[in-house]
Amino acid sequence: MATAETAGGRAPAWRGGFGRLWTAAVVSRFGDALRTTALPLLAVQLTDDPLVIASVTACGYVPWLLFGLLGGAVADRVDQRRAMWAVDLVRGLLVAGFALAVGLGHASIPLLLVLAFSLTTLQTLFDNASTALLPSLVDREALGSANARLMTGQQLAGGLLAGPFVPLLLTAGAAMPFVADASTYLLAAALVATLRIRPPEPEPRPAGSTLRAEIGEGLRTLRRDPALRAVCVATLLCNIGMGALIATLVLHVTRWLHGGQTAYAAAMTAYTAGSLAGGFVAQRIARRTGRVRALLLAGTVQTASLLLAGTVRHLAAFLAAMALLGAMGMVWNVNQVTLMQQRSPESMVGRIASAFRTASTSGAPVGALLGGAVAGAFGLNGPALLAAVLFTLAVTSLIPARKADVPVVAPDDDATTAHAVR
Q1: Domain identity same for 264 and 389
Q2: pLDDT band at residue 270, thresholds of 50, 70 and 90?
């Protein structure tokens, strides 16, 4: 494995495969952002039924609830590198076929629903395989920096760079965002396929072992680890809160704060800018506090930000709150994923990662429904205050686990670390 010494600790070197994985992840996220922006715009051209339009977005959640745990179990069974490039190849071909249908004037709502469902179903395997693969590319003490660089690069590509490209691509035709997305999938597949990794030897499985039994084994392992169990519960609570806030954010800005579309765009930009800043400080905070305490700090600051957003009726205060939410959200994500990778048995990273992702994904739609109900019953600032309550519960649930932390710089142990082939 290749790592580099930095002033604050060890960071992944770009050689040895991490640079190619980073490039593949960032390129793919750029394409995803193009597609997810263009799909609702296309749906609006095909129907004016709000429920049908919303169902296109819902198809991005349902496969995680149905297949998320299964994707993690499969990711632990297979060669993760091969699974990733094969999935990206299939996704590239699917989106290319969809782009052709759009270009020929054959787009339809059923076709949009099938595409959204299929891509997310494949993503349940890809994302869990990616999380399980990273410890094979970088040393354990560099995992935090690697996750921070991956997430920051993806946020930059998907949150800032992709947005302005969609209108430009649409001027060349409704199919062009999907052509670009298909190209990014195929490029990412080629990059991942060239990774030279010697994966860890798989543990022998008992005769007759089933995916269902292996999923259960992963969940039991998660339940027995006090830190991972607490972080998983806290992540679920936080995502319910964020689902409530995001689902009603446009109402909060345009009606409660009496801002316009520009104010809403400014709020989203503040959140993205904060996320990028959080990517740069996430590992520094963890080095000083440890990972569980970094989560406690992030959750506490986010709670204060939500209280600010829900009580101070001023746009500048709201923009500051959104920037802090984004920054501490990135600190949370980087340290949550790294803690999970460090504490999970090597043969179960995919299954435990899938439990986290399933919890996260299930929290968002539940929060969206709660947010809508609270906004209607208690006022448009109610979802922000509901989110503050849920974040408070999340922080409280983490307190017992703060002593079960993992050192940020762990000893390099061949028993727990696989090696890349140079």
Answers
A1: yes
A2: very high
